[in-house]
Fold this protein.
Amino acid sequence: MVTRRGFLAGSSAAIVAGAAPRMAWGRTEVDVAIIGAGLAGLNAARVCEAAGLTVVVLEAENRIGGRLHTLDDLPGKPDAGGIQIGAGYKRLHSIAGELGVVLSGDAGAGAGRVQTPGNLYSIGGKSSTASSWSDSLANRLSQEERDTEPASLLRRYARALPTWTEPQAWLDAPAELDISVEQALRSAGASGEARRLIATNFNGNDLASMSQLHLARSFAIFRSQPGPVSTIVGGSQRLPEAMAAALKADVRLGEKVTAIVEQPGGVILRLSDYTLSARQVVCTVPFAAMRHIPMQARLSPHMAKMIAQLPYTRASFAYIRAKTPFWESDPYPDTLWTDDPLIGRIFVLGSDPAMLKLWTTGAGADMLDRLPRREAERQIIARIESARPSAMGQLEVLRLYSWQRNPHARGIYHHIGTGMAADLANATRDADSLLHFAGEHLAVASSGMEGALESGEEAALRVLAQS
Ligand SMILES: Cc1cc2nc3c(=O)[nH]c(=O)nc-3n(C[C@H](O)[C@H](O)[C@H](O)COP(=O)(O)OP(=O)(O)OC[C@H]3O[C@@H](n4cnc5c(N)ncnc54)[C@H](O)[C@@H]3O)c2cc1C
């Protein structure tokens, strides 16, 4: 257990020091102020409220849900954030059942048929499918690898990762295992071309900056909850909306916390035109956004380091309408999987309405974000048409969506950076403050939506322990 706490120095603290006189300690207005109306914040609010504490939830955006974000104004109401609910998401299933939020085993329109088997590959500008890949001229894999299709390469080498039966085993993993995915793949014998293809549509920014322990943890979580995935009927955002509606607490939208000062006996939050003093605070801001909030607080060295450095995956999307479901008129699988970083993968969201979603990460996402909107649309359409001729004349880009450009997220989710597992593990054990941190990034045994609920609950229990 790490309890030693240091004082966060640096520019953020300096900014707050200048602001401190105007943030003088006054009357405590609430027992608990919760920053963020995503799943972590709302679950923390539920637990605190059920224990009889007065709670206020402060949310910077003008909507509830954070990284559960249903784009209600687009055809089919696609989701921009989390979608898939694992069979082992016990908290989520229980809360949804209690609030009458309906889950469905059918991905449905708007959720994204990301599980559709097989891909149409466009590698080096040449098209192939699972059956033609091994003989494709674009296949530059080693002799032993060439029968493995690009999307399956990571799974092939995952056998070389540490195998855990307990999802929380990462907490005590030896430091010598905290090496990069790049190094782990090299040691497992992956060729340069295999590593290039894995990096192309990687669920991270690049192979060097993610620890292999992060992948090992994801696989352990996946193995621990076999069973079908489900989605939320009407869109993922319906769950946090129902959670907020069931609270007695004031959920204040459009209320951005701009500075945090921890003092003996309480915490002061600065908002745009007032300050709020709370006995305790639960802060669920993703660390990629948190590092931009001036803060004066006693933090453990591990927590301070993670706030400053924990990496988040950058991802950009495009929502694309088609005149007709053209993918039904050619003999290829629905999903287009490319090694073109600008378009990454193109998923079919549904046929009625006919909608597609582009998903690109890391450097590809940066590239897309840098293009002027019209040029991005032009390039996306031209590149899809070239990879899949049946798309010719069919496409219209309705929306570009970049999570890393959202100042309240700055990425889609965290990953354990190379060499960071011990610091993150110690940060999850911090417990002796009036300023508590929560969010998917601090979950121990689960990830994604369930991780957010888990960490919100844990933070609430720490609040109750000090009330
Ligand atoms: C593209 C994408 C796909 C995903 N896919 C899946 C999936 O299939 N399955 C799964 O389980 N999970 C998935 N996830 C992850 C899941 O959505 C998240 O783990 C979960 O929603 C995070 O909840 P949270 O409460 O920790 O954070 P958030 O939902 O980000 O909540 C934090 C809140 O804090 C607010 N905030 C930020 N700064 C301030 C401030 N200064 N003042 C006040 N409020 C502030 C934010 O606006 C936000 O509402 C996905 C996420 C993304 C983005």
